[in-house]
Write a structure and sequence with these properties.
The chain is an all-alpha fold. It has a single domain (about 1-10, about 40-145), classed as Globins (Globin-like), CATH 1.10.490.10. It is built from eight helices and no strands. The protein has helices spanning about 1-15, 35, 40-55, 70-85, 95-100, 105-125, 130-140, 140-145. The relative contact order is 0.17. The structure holds protoporphyrin IX containing FE.
Length: about 150
């Protein structure tokens, strides 16, 4: 069944280019943000794609995405990572509580997804400090994603 997600992901990757909601970066800014350290829009796009491939291949969680619109998921993840890392984007997706409510997501599944994200960051040689900063801005979402 993981191939359903992989196939949807593949067509999504081939059919969609770029992050429509990424605005051009302001020329006057100087301090490097997490967004900069992730490689801005292109770096985040590469990370999201690596992350999605790993989710598709992960038997612990890929069934959960069997009904998911991967094109939308990919776009919203790009926006979310951009916004949370301080980038010039707008998140147009639904709230984490709304999206994940009813999916009965368990702690072990949340941890599996985080592991996949770490593997994706490792595969792109993202510095450990940068990885930890991204994980730190995602951590507060835990309470809205994992079922009580
Ligand atoms: C740090 C952890 C996570 C983040 C940042 C995250 C983020 C997101 C985002 C941005 C969306 C798209 C929202 C939208 O379409 O408006 C989404 C959808 C979804 N997420 Fe997560 N998620 C996380 C963990 C998980 C886990 C652990 C699972 C299950 C194992 C999961 C299952 C899903 C599913 C099934 C959808 C699609 C829902 C639908 O189409 O109705 N997520 N997530």
């Amino acid at each position: 069944m993981k191939y359903c997600l992989a196939a949807a992901l593949l067509s999504s990757l081939l059919g969609v280019a770029g992050c429509a909601n990424t605005l051009s970066s302001s020329p006057g800014s100087s301090a490097a943000t997490l967004y900069d350290d992730l490689g801005q829009g292109p770096g985040i796009a590469a990370l999201v794609d690596q992350f999605l491939w790993r989710l598709a291949d992960d038997e612990r969680v890929n069934q959960r995405f069997a009904e998911t619109n991967i094109t939308r998921f990919r776009e919203k993840l790009n926006e979310q990572f951009c916004v949370l890392s301080g980038g010039p984007c707008i998140y147009t997706g639904d709230s984490m509580r709304e999206v994940h409510a009813g999916h009965d997501i368990r702690e072990a599944q949340f941890n599996a997804v985080v592991e996949d994200l770490i593997e994706a960051m490792e595969s792109l040689d993202i510095a450990t400090g940068t990885q930890n900063r991204l994980l730190a801005v995602l951590a507060p979402l835990h309470g809205d994603i994992v079922a009580r």
